[in-house]
Amino acid sequence: MGTSLLDNRILIAAFLAWAVAQVGKTIYELIRQRKLIFNRLVSSGGMPSSHSALVTGLATAAGRVSGLSSAAFAIAVVLAAIVMYDAAGVRRAVSIQARILNQMIDEAFQGQPFAEKRLRELIGHTPVQVIVGGLLGILIGLLATF
Q1: The model's pTM
Q2: Is residue 51 part of a domain?
Q3: Of the segments 97-101, 105-109, 112-116, which one has the largest average pLDDT value?
Q4: Residues ≥6 apart with Cβ < 8 Å to 34
Q5: Are 61 and 14 in contact (CB under 8 A)?
Q6: Could you tell me if 57 and 16 are in contact, meaning their C-beta atoms sit under 8 angstroms apart?
Q7: Are 7 and 145 a contacting pair, CB within 8 Å?
Q8: What is the pLDDT at residue 116?
Q9: In angstroms, rounded to a whole number, what is the distance separating the alpha carbons of residues 94 and 59?
Q10: Residue range of the domain that includes 55
Q11: How large is the angle between the packed helices 71-88 and 90-108, nearest 10 degrees?
C-alpha cells in the first residue's frame, strides 16, 4: 500500500473525472459559441455536469477498488445520487429563477442605471447534462482503476 495521496486511485479517478468534464465543458462552449471562455474551466453549470462526473467517478472507483459490497461504495453511491438529484433539481430551479429575476430587473430599470449585481444564471444542469457527466465519470472511474 502506498502512503502518498497520489497513490489513492479512488481520489485520482474522482478528480480526473471532474477535470475532464471541466475541459470538456470549455471545449463544448468553444464549439457552440465560437469563442474561448476560460472561466468555464472552473465554473458550475453547463454540459457536461462536472459534479456528476466527480461523484460517479468516485463511486465507480470505490466499487472497483473496495468492492461493490463495501461501505465506501455504498456511501459514494448515496452521495452521487444526492449530488446528481440536486444538480438537475434544486440548482436547476435556482438557475431558472435567476434568469427570470434578471429579466424582471432589466425591464423594471430600462434606461436607468441599476447598481445591483446580476444573479448568476448558469448554476444547475438539465437532466441530459447530468447523465452525460455521470457517464463520463463512470468511464473515467473504470479507466483509472484498471
Answers
A1: 0.77
A2: yes
A3: 97-101
A4: none
A5: yes
A6: yes
A7: no
A8: 66
A9: 27
A10: 5-89+124-144
A11: 20
